[in-house]
Specification:
It comes from Marmota marmota marmota (Alpine marmot). The chain is mainly β and 461 residues long. 3% of the residues lie in helices and 46% in strands.
Length: 461
C-alpha cells in the first residue's frame, strides 16, 4: 500500500467521477477537481457560499454544488470551465438536489417537501412534481436511467409514481399498502421496486414496473421492524435488516425468505474465523529512554499500531445495552452491503457496534471481525471481494478471502478516518477525515485472481 499526501477537505465532501478520471473535493466554498493519476489540480471553482453537497453527472462532464442554506445550486463544466449555471430556488428553499441519469436535468426538492423542481440544462425549461414524501429514501432511479420512482404523500395516504426520465411523463401511479412509507429502491435490473414501511410496522412490498403487487413480506408483528434494506447486484436476493438483530434474505423467484442470519453475542462454531484487532505494544528500549520522550513516543494512543489476531472459539463479543426508552435506540442491523459479485454480505448489528460480520452465498457465517472501536463505515471494492472498514481511528482495515490487515495511515499527527470512497477500478481508496483526505493506493498484481481462487476453494467440499 502507498499513501498520498493529505489534502484539505470540508464536510467529508470528496467524490470520484463516474469515469474514474477525476476526484472532486470541497474546502469551504471552493470546489477542487484533481486528476486521479497525478493528483494535480485540474480545475478550481469558487461558489457563492459554503458547499453542503456535491454530485457528478453520470457522464462526468458536469458537477453540481448545493448550498442548502442559501437555496442555491451551482453547476460547473469540466470541458468548458468558463460555462457555469446558477439555480436559485428563492423563498421555496432547498433541502435536496440530485442529477437525473442523463446528466442534463437537476432535481431540487424544496423545503417542507412541497415539490420537486426539474431543471433542464439544455432547454432551460422547468417542470414541477407535487407531493414528494419526506422519508429516508423517497427517490430512486433504475440502473439504465430510464425510469424514476417517487414516494408521495397526499390525503394522508402513501403513493408511488413512476416517471419516464426521457420526457418526465407519468407512467404509473398507484397507492401502497403502508402506514408510513419509509423508503423505496429499485432492484439493479430495474424490474422490481422494493417499498418498506415505518419501523413501527414490519412490512416490505415488492412491485413490478407496471405497479402490480408481486409480494408482501412480514417477519413478525408488535415490535420495531425494518431498519435497513439492500439488493444484491445480481438482483437475486433482497437483504432486510431488522431491529431484532437479524438479517432475512428473500429470493427473487417466490419472494419468500430463504434464510435468516442472527448476530449472537457469542461465537461458538469452530468453522467461523474470528479476527480480533489487538494493539501492538511498542518495543521497550529501556536503556535508551529519554525525557521528554521523542515525538514518536509522544503520539496519541489512537495512532498506535494494531494487528489482527485469530481468536479461538468460543468468543464473546463486546455488546452495547440499548436505551429502549429513547428514540432511535442503538439496536438492530443498521448496515448491509453485498460484494460486487453478490457472493458475500457484510453486516453490522448496532448493539454489537465494534463487529463486522461477513456471510457467504452458501448461507452461512464465514468471518467475524471485531474491532477495538465502533465501526463507522464499510464498503466493498467495486471490482473484487475486498472489504474496507473504518472506525474513526487513524487506521484502515481490509478484508478479503485471503485474510485481513490493519494499516496505519502515515503522516504527522492523527488522521481519524471517518468515511471511505472506492475508485471504480478498485485500485485506490479515498480516506476522509474531518479536515483532510488522502488516497490509499493498493497493489493489485494478481489481486483479483488470488481472490477468486480463494473464493473457489471455499466452494469445494
Amino acid at each position: 500500500m502507498n499513501f498520498s499526501e493529505a489534502f484539505k477537505l470540508s464536510s467529508l465532501l470528496c467524490r470520484f467521477s463516474p469515469d474514474g478520471k477525476y476526484l472532486a473535493s470541497c474546502v469551504q466554498y471552493r470546489l477542487v477537481v484533481r486528476d486521479v493519476s497525478t493528483l494535480q489540480i485540474r480545475q478550481l471553482y469558487t461558489c457563492l457560499d459554503q458547499i453542503q453537497h456535491i454530485e457528478w453527472s453520470a457522464d462526468s462532464l458536469f458537477i453540481l454544488c448545493a448550498m442548502y442554506r442559501r437555496g442555491l445550486v451551482q453547476v460547473w463544466s469540466l470541458e468548458q470551465p468558463e460555462w457555469h449555471c446558477k439555480i436559485d430556488e428563492g423563498s421555496a428553499g432547498l433541502v435536496a438536489s440530485c442529477w437525473s441519469p442523463d446528466g442534463r436535468h437537476i432535481l431540487n426538492t424544496t423545503e417542507f417537501h412541497l415539490r420537486i423542481t426539474v431543471w433542464s440544462l439544455c432547454t432551460k425549461s422547468v417542470s414541477y412534481i407535487k407531493y414528494p414524501k419526506a422519508c429516508q429514501q423517497g427517490v430512486t432511479f433504475t440502473r439504465d436511467g430510464r425510469y424514476m420512482a417517487l414516494a408521495e404523500r397526499r390525503d394522508c395516504k402513501d403513493y408511488v409514481s413512476i416517471f419516464v426520465c426521457s420526457d418526465w411523463q407519468l407512467l404509473r401511479h398507484f397507492d401502497t399498502d403502508t402506514q408510513d412509507l419509509a423508503g423505496i429502491e429499485w432492484a439493479p435490473n430495474g424490474c422490481v421496486l422494493a417499498v418498506w414501511d415505518t419501523c413501527l410496522e414490519y412490512k416490505i412490498l415488492l412491485y413490478s414496473l407496471d405497479g402490480r403487487l408481486l409480494s408482501a413480506y412480514c417477519a413478525y408483528e408488535w415490535s420495531l421492524g425494518i431498519k435497513s434494506v439492500a439488493w444484491s447486484p445480481s438482483s437475486q436476493f433482497l437483504a432486510v435488516g431488522s431491529y431484532d438483530g437479524k438479517v432475512r434474505l428473500l429470493n427473487h423467484v417466490t419472494w419468500k425468505m430463504i434464510t435468516e442470519f442472527g448476530h449472537p453475542a457469542a461465537i461458538n462454531n469452530p468453522k467461523i474465523v474470528v479476527y480480533k484487532e489487538a494493539e501492538k505494544g511498542p518495543p521497550l528500549g529501556l536503556g535508551r529512554l529519554s525525557f521528554p520522550p521523542p515525538l514518536p513516543l509522544a503520539a496519541p494512543l489512537s495512532a498506535s499500531e494494531s494487528k489482527y489476531e485469530i481468536a479461538s472459539v468460543p468468543v464473546s463479543l463486546q455488546t452495547l445495552k440499548p436505551a429502549t426508552d429513547r428514540a432511535n435506540p442503538r439496536m438492530g442491523v443498521g448496515m448491509l452491503a453485498f460484494s460486487a459479485d453478490s457472493y458475500f454480505l457484510a453486516t453490522r448489528n448496532d448493539n454489537v457496534p465494534n463487529t463486522v460480520w461477513v456471510w457467504i452465498q452458501k448461507l452461512r457465517l464465514l468471518v467475524v471481525l471485531e474491532q477495538l472501536a465502533p465501526v463507522r463505515s464499510f464498503l466493498w471494492d467495486p471490482q473484487q471481494p475486498r472489504l474496507a472498514i473504518c472506525t474513526g481511528g487513524s487506521k484502515v482495515y481490509l478484508w478479503s478471502p485471503a485474510g485481513c490487515v490493519s494499516v496505519q495511515v502515515p503522516g504527522e499527527g492523527d488522521f481519524p478516518v471517518l468515511s471511505l470512497c472506492w475508485h471504480s477500478s478498485g485500485d485506490s481508496l479515498a480516506l476522509l477525515s474531518k479536515d483532510h483526505f488522502c488516497l490509499c493506493f493498493l497493489d493489485t498484481e494478481g489481486g483479483p485472481h488470488t481472490a477468486l481462487e480463494q473464493r473457489d476453494s471455499m466452494r469445494r467440499p
